[in-house]
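Handout, page 2. Input:
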Amino acid sequence: MSPESTIVAGDTAWVLISTALVLIMVPGLACFYGGLARNRAVLNTMLMSFGALAVMSVFWVVVGYSLAFSPGSAWLGGLAWLGMQGVGATPNATYSASVPHVLFSSFQMMFAGITVALISGAVVERMRFTALLLFALLWGGLVYVPLAHWVWADGGWLRSLGALDFAGGTVVHISAGVAALILARMLGRRHDAGRTAILPHNVPMTLIGAGILWFGWFGFNAGSALAANGIAANAAITTHTAAAAGLLSWLLVDFIRTRHATAVGAPTGAVAGLVAITPAAGYVSPMSAIAIGCIGSVCAYAAIQLRARTSVDDALDVFACHGVSGIVGALATGVFATKLINKNGADGLLTGNVHLLGVQAVAVLATIAFVSVMTPAVVLMVNAVTTIRISLADELSGVDTSEHREEGYHAGGLSEFAGQAVSLGQRVVLPAHEIFGRTVTSVE
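Output:
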């Protein structure tokens, strides 16, 4: 049988769709983060997500995929697939037995892109955009790629140890959450953090972003089955129920604590539930997913309250929502996993196998330790090349204006309509600027 004949049309179609679903999570994240930012930083906040995706996508094709997944050592892949050489329409039996190898690589590319984008939420209003792009490149190559190899690549040491991470609890969420906390601490606080209330400027945008993330997460998790099969179906329902449980548990805790159920809290709880179920989605039952979503959401809520009492300015609480919930999900996989759901997985603590929980704990600790060492090194490298933090004057004027010479919102007055500024209180004629065929003159 030729390699081409192993391609399954249904599996290929599903992974193609899942790749697009993960991609759409990036604009979803941009809206989620953008709505939580202040209006003077909305463009920068959103653009950081798109910039991180672009940098990681090009890097992935050139060398990232090869270092993450090609044959190598237990710690890092080799250069056999440099520039995607040998990665084509033929399936690779090790990773994608029923879909083209290039499609598997494309699917993994989206994971790499959104992981770095997640980190950006911690440094809203104070990191230079060019520094963020350089950080994305270096962090992606020195941190994300090795972690992906450890956990998902054939021969990776955590995979060989028996660690389970269905769709990125350790590789994506714990790594991004820990890196975000470290980056926020190293950059320092915004000048008015802790001195005045810093409120979201557009909560409806955040709700829409969360909805897009929820939608895209079906590709993120169910797509990780790499086939249109029962495991993908199970991952889909566990993903949804964990998100719903996370939203409800957050609202309940919020109501008990403040007597209000907030429109910012609800989507945050859903995202925390989605993060928590990510490593377990293909290994646990829907009932277990409800428990995981609840625990992940409540723990993230508690982490936000604790963080608020510290001097760390993790602007959008990336560590709480992704780091803490990711840790909960990775450990919960060691508790709730069962071979009744996925015969290629393992039984967890509830089915009598305490060993899996120990392996999951090792994976969590190894991820935290590695990211904690490498992220400061990357920050120092970036700062040696270019100033990483914007100046106080630029922060006060607004990062959108200082970094991009644009604003997210305009008043829509006559000056914009004419394409030239109009000074009130004196006669100003706008030569060669006509609106509906008439020269515009300001009011004296």
